[in-house]
Amino acid sequence: MIRNPNDIQEGAKKIRMLIAGYPGIGKSTLALSAPNPLHIDVDFGIDRIEPRYRKPYIQPQSYDEILGDLTPINLQDFDTLVFDTGGKLISLMSLWAIKKDPKYGQRDGSLSLKGYGFVGKEFVRLMDYCFYELQKNIVIVFHATEEKDGDNTRLRIKVEGQTKNNVWEPMDLGGFVEIYGNDRTIGFSNCERYFAKGTRGISGIRKIPALGPTSPNDFLTKLFAEYNAKATAEVEQNAVDQAAYEAAMVEGSAIIAGIVDADTANAAMPKYQAIKHALTSNKELGVLWNKKVKECGLFYDKVLKKYTPAPAAPGEEKGAE
Questions:
Q1: Which residues pair with 175 in a beta bridge?
Q2: Phi, then psi, of 110 in degrees rounded to 5
Q3: How confident is the model at residue 86 (pLDDT cuts 50, 70, 90)?
Q4: From the CB of residue 21, how many other CB atoms can be counted at a distance below 10 Å?
Q5: Beta carbons of 186 and 222 less than 8 angstroms apart
Q6: Are 46 and 77 in a shared domain?
Q7: Of 76, 83, 77, residue with least CA distance to 60
């Protein structure tokens, strides 16, 4: 079904986010600042997180174990799933894929080209399952690696093969964590140094507040709230615009319906020009106006600045101005 984008009513939504950065920069702690998270500690690194910032966790040793744990009953008390790290998650997926079908692997144990394609699709499927069916926020953590591009050094997420393309596809937000001076920052806009992803007005570089002994670890909770506040504002504005559009269409259609000859067309012009348009009402009503005056055999005289019956050799017709 083809739908009008102006009909979208969704406001608050769950969010999918990627966090990348060098090891030890605080990515896991940042990820756990998301709303009510379950820490899927694939890297077995929870001991590196300060105790006061730790959250309920699982430490799966296989991808089958992850699939077994991610059920609606098990996750009913959580709002966010934190996969830490995405690289290790994809490694477990790779072992699972090769075990499932040997053609997905090579003799040295690495993935074949078909294997990379299969794992990439499975990653997207897992993200879709967590987002659409389980209805959870998703935060996935990746280590960063440096790649040389001529004289430039760029940061990329550390993941094997072509699966890195699949990783970015479902994400709403993606940021690289870096340190500038004494400040930790996260960047949401593409630049020469790294790829990133920002939507709903979340962009640029943002400072991550330092955490003290009594500081709440809530950076992503606030960021997600900001994201959804902007989404809600867009929905509310869309409702206002839609109401104005419908009113303009009703008013304009009534005016156009009253045109039967040159006199009624000329009398209708001031009323038509006074319509307060919204969205595509001006364009749509313009088409209806031109169609109606053509049906009535009218011609807009540029000298007289009014409609007259079309001459025997009709000139160029023009709609209401």
A1: 19
A2: -85, 170
A3: very high
A4: 25
A5: no
A6: yes
A7: 83
* pLDDT score, position 92: 94
User: What is this structure's pTM?
Assistant: 0.75
Query: Would you say residue 225 lies in a domain?
Result: no
Extract long-range pairs of 293-301: CB within 8 Å, 24+ residues apart.
293/259, 293/265, 293/317, 293/319, 296/259, 296/260, 296/261, 296/262, 296/265, 298/261, 298/262, 298/265
Peptide bond into 80 cis (omega under 30): no
- Average pLDDT in the 214-239 region? 88
CA angle 136, 39, 189 (to 5 degrees): 65
Mean of pLDDT values over 262-284: 93
Q: What is the DSSP letter of 210?
A: P
- The structure tokens listed for 84 are 């830490």
R_g of the chain computed on alpha carbons:
29
Residues 186 and 134 in one domain: yes
**Contact 4/49 with Cβ under 8 angstroms?**
no
Same domain, 257 and 193: no
In a domain, 222, yes or no: no
Give residue-wise pLDDT tens across range 154-177.
778 887 766 677 888 889 999 999
Both 147 and 105 in one domain: the answer is: yes
Strand partners, 25: none
Q: In the chain, how many domains are there? A: 2
Q: Which pLDDT score, from 0 to 100, does residue 5 have?
A: 59
* 199 or 64, higher pLDDT: 64
CA 62 to chain centre: 30
Cα torsion 267, 272, 274, 275 to 10°: value is: 150
